[in-house]
Every structure is written in structure tokens, then in C-alpha cells.
Please model this.
Amino acid sequence: MSLFSIIIIIALAFGIIISGLIILKKTAKGFNLTPEQLATIKKRNEELDKEQRKEESKNK
Model:
């Protein structure tokens, strides 16, 4: 294989990877959560943090 064809193959591979990432970024959607769902998530996270602190204090 010549150097030119190797460079073309590498350029095509980078192009495919970069275009895939751009398409993925454009199609990504954010979460539209209601205030109730946000409150539930916050409460669950606080409970998990509390349990983790309990376990950490037991392990010391």
C-alpha cells in the first residue's frame, strides 16, 4: 500500500468517528422532569448519602 492510500484510510476513519459523535450530540435529549420527580430523586439521593455515611462510620 502506498502512503497516500494509508493517509486516505486514516482520514476516512477519523471522519466517520467525528461525524458519529456529532450526530450523537445532536440527537441527545435532556430530561424534562416534573418538580415531583425532582423532589423524589433528591430525597432518594439524601437517603443514599445517609446510608453511605453510616457504613463509612461503621468501617472506621
Summary: Residues 3-27 form the longest helix (25 residues). Residues 3-59 form one domain.
